[in-house]
Design goal:
Blueprint: E1 4-15, E2 18-29, E3 33-37, H1 44-51, E4 59-64, E5 67-68, H2 74-79, E6 82-84, H3 97-105, H4 119-122, H5 126-135, H6 151-164, E7 169-173, H7 181-194, E8 199-203, H8 207-213, E9 216-221, E10 224-229, H9 231-235, H10 238-244, H11 246-252
Parallel strand pairs: 3-8, 3-9, 6-7, 7-8
Antiparallel strand pairs: 1-2, 1-4, 4-5, 9-10
Helix pairs in contact: 3-5, 3-6, 5-6, 6-7, 10-11
Length: about 260
């Protein structure tokens, strides 16, 4: 069995009496694509915010590669190799595609916030940036202003900037949200490609994407773990089908 990279023990979060995440025990194994799914309001994004320390837990522990990271700050978590994308596009719209990836690469130089650095001093990053753009099929758009990219390509750029920070664990929050069928397919294949040799934890609402990509799935409902297992196992779980109901329940049985 693969090594556990990320683990939570009794992870909980309450907001003035409302429990958003309740006693979640999660294990993400090295080299896996692991999905967090659940109906709206199930606590998926809150769980992500706890894992990346944008929120502090009310109870429980978070362990990364065997080390307790429960009380660490978000910047420290990122330096350890846990890198996250967000639901809302998080690229610099008035920079080129290449410049966006180059900013991610600057961290290795210790100049992450030196946006005024000259083109000459940053030029040594271009070859590495182009290699990352090639990995996400954006090399031909390197000189394009990011604001001019279609939505699906912006999400691909976000993945490239995430890769630029050399993640050991990638956390992808709703990577296909708001996309048409063509873009969903393109980004799904991109995630499959970049996940080779990496570990991915993703929140995803599209069950066809989950079915086609994920090694293991954790289902949340009202902040608690409802079920866990392979897609075949959770899609046939009566409690999971009841939680999703209606069309979403029917989608659970869809094959990729």
């Amino acid at each position: 069995m693969s090594e556990v990279v990320l683990e939570t023990r009794g992870l909980s979060k309450s907001f003035k009496g409302f429990t958003a995440v309740q006693d979640v025990n999660l294990q993400v194994r090295r080299g896996h694509i692991h999905a967090l799914i659940g109906p709206n309001g199930a606590g998926k994004t809150t769980c992500f915010n706890l894992l990346t320390k944008f929120l502090d837990p009310s109870a429980g522990r978070i362990l990364y590669q065997g080390h307790d990271i429960t009380r660490l700050k978000p910047a420290h978590i990122a330096r350890m190799g846990i890198i996250r994308s967000f639901q809302i596009s998080a690229v610099f719209p008035h920079l080129t595609v290449l410049q966006n990836v180059r900013i991610g690469l600057q961290r290795a130089l210790g100049t992450s916030y030196h946006f005024w650095r000259s083109e000459r001093s940053l030029g040594r990053l271009d070859e590495q940036a182009m290699a990352l753009l090639d990995e996400v099929d954006l090399a031909g758009l390197a000189a394009t202003l990011t604001a001019d990219l279609p939505y699906g390509r912006k999400r691909a750029l976000e993945i490239a900037t995430t890769l630029a920070m050399a993640p050991q664990l990638m956390l992808l929050d709703e990577p296909t949200q708001g996309m048409g069928h063509e873009d969903v397919h393109r980004v799904t294949e991109l995630i499959r490609k970049v996940a080779q040799g990496r570990t991915v934890l993703m929140v995803e609402h599209n069950m066809r994407v989950v079915a086609g990509l994920c090694d293991r799935i954790t289902v949340l409902q009202r902040g608690a773990v409802l079920a866990e297992g392979s897609y075949a196992e959770v899609s046939q779980n009566p409690q999971v089908m009841e939680a999703y109901m209606g069309s979403a329940s029917a989608e659970l049985g869809a094959q990729p």
